[in-house]
UniProtKB/TrEMBL annotation:
Protein name per the record: MFS transporter
Entry membrane topology: Multi-pass membrane protein
Major place of residence: membrane
GO MF annotation list: transmembrane transporter activity
Cellular localisation: Cell membrane
GO CC, any one term: plasma membrane
Domain Major facilitator superfamily (MFS) profile: 19-419
Length: 436
């Protein structure tokens, strides 16, 4: 089993270049994590309607509610466990819990089995995706956090897109079940195998970064190791920057959860086939994933605040475009806008949280942020389902667009810039650490 001591035997260095092998491996592992979500994205609403006879939108979106709640609370647990016991065991546990999911989705005799599978998938995602995020932050150090998060989320959401397209394509030719879910079996086998055999612990890199800050000091205004309650309150309410990032993350995943559950129904209502729905379901996360290669690095130079605020506005415009459209071209244009806006926001929010939180409690802060962010899936499922049942699919999209725009306004008014371009460490500390 990989340990901190074995990796710490030599001199530790931070930075993408100095840790290219492990960083690249974690990017690949996160792609398989993303693929597990993508395999559901284009076909589960169709399975709900065609195989289980569900008509109410709120009932169909129950799988997203289950996924969002379980993933959100596991994110928080993953951050705490990673600070206490290391990152590697949490990552491996996440993959172990993912193993039954594709088989349950293949053979589920009732919708409640699908919902249960999504609880398990949410727990798995909370453990595995959270730790790949934390491990990349550990390795990258302070200078290239935005780029590191862009690469991480690029891999994850490009895989979501490819898996969504592939399952839609397979379903159109071989049926909704079981064929599309064999992809999930492959993702689990590859992700688990790479994590067990090749991934190494990174907590010692965070400890090294903490030691090489001036005097090992915390970020201004806080103790080096605040209590879990203090970290929770800072990230949720009391720290203007952390809490602004948290509410924006919640709003982002609120609209993503609504898109996951409602877009396939909107597209089907416009008489599009499974293959076209799969292509559209893939387009949004594909643009989201690819654009993060640019936006993450951009935030390391231009700053975090206005990328986040602007990205929320672009997301709202994309959702509005889909609400106004009635055919493939309009849906595609709205999906591209939504993907671009999300790419502006997603890696930048993670980088902003890492800017503010001290390495000694950073994993816990990331866990709190990801708790609230992924509760957005649950809020999105409830809001979209209730409004869609009461007022129709179109009105549900308008409500989600309005909430997204309002969240960006909160960032613009309340958040300050978190990127500090100067290196605050003494020269002696900088000579011990190589940055990419």
């Amino acid at each position: 089993m990989p340990t901190a001591s074995s990796a710490a035997a030599g001199q530790l260095r931070l930075g993408l270049r100095a840790n290219l092998g492990q960083f690249s491996l974690l990017v690949l592992v996160n792609a398989f994590v993303g693929g597990m979500v993508g395999m559901e994205r284009s076909i589960l609403p169709a399975i709900a309607e065609q195989e289980f006879g569900l008509a109410a939108r709120a009932a169909i979106l129950s799988f997203i509610l289950a996924f969002g709640l379980s993933k959100a609370f596991t994110n928080y647990l993953a951050g705490r466990l990673s600070d206490r016991h290391g990152r590697w065991p949490v990552l491996v546990a996440g993959w172990a819990l993912a193993a039954p999911v594709p088989f349950v989705l293949m053979w589920a005799p009732g919708w409640e089995w699908v919902v249960a599978a999504n609880v398990l998938l949410g727990v798995s995602q909370g453990l595995a995706w959270s730790t790949t995020v934390i491990m990349k932050i550990d390795l990258a150090g302070p200078r290239n956090r935005g780029l590191a998060m862009g690469l991480n989320e690029f891999a994850g959401y490009l895989a979501v897109a490819l898996a969504a397209w592939a399952t839609g394509w397979i379903a159109a030719r071989h049926g909704l079940r079981p064929a599309p879910f064999w992809l999930g079996v492959a993702f689990v086998a590859l992700g688990f195998g790479l994590s067990v055999l090749l991934v190494r612990e990174t907590r010692h890199h965070a400890e090294h970064e903490a030691r090489t800050r001036p005097g090992g000091a915390p970020s201004p205004g806080g103790a080096a190791r605040p209590s879990e309650r203090e970290v929770f309150l800072r990230a949720t309410l009391t720290d203007r920057n952390l809490s602004s990032a948290t509410q924006a993350g919640l709003a982002n995943n609120l609209n993503d959860g609504a898109a996951w559950g409602l877009f396939p129904l909107v597209f089907a209502g416009a008489d599009l086939g499974l293959a076209e729905i799969g292509a559209l379901a893939a387009l949004y996360p594909a643009v989201w994933g690819a654009a993060q290669l640019v936006t993450g690095a951009w935030s390391d130079r231009a700053g975090r605040k206005w990328l986040i605020a602007g990205g929320m506005a672009v997301q709202a415009a994309g959702i509005a475009a889909i609400a106004l459209s009635a055919g493939f071209a309009g849906f595609a244009a709205g999906s591209v806008l939504l993907g671009l806006g999300t790419a502006m926001v997603y890696p930048t929010l993670l980088a902003a949280v890492a800017d503010v939180a001290h390495p000694a409690w950073r994993a816990s802060a990331v866990g709190v942020y990801r708790l609230w962010r992924d509760l957005g899936y649950a809020f999105g499922a409830v809001v979209a389902g209730v409004v869609a049942d009461a007022l129709g699919l179109g009105m549900a999209l308008w409500v989600v667009a309005a909430l997204t725009f309002a969240s960006g306004a909160v960032v613009a008014l309340r958040m300050s810039e978190t990127l500090h371009r100067e290196d605050p460490r003494p020269a002696a500390g900088r000579t011990r650490e190589t940055q990419a």
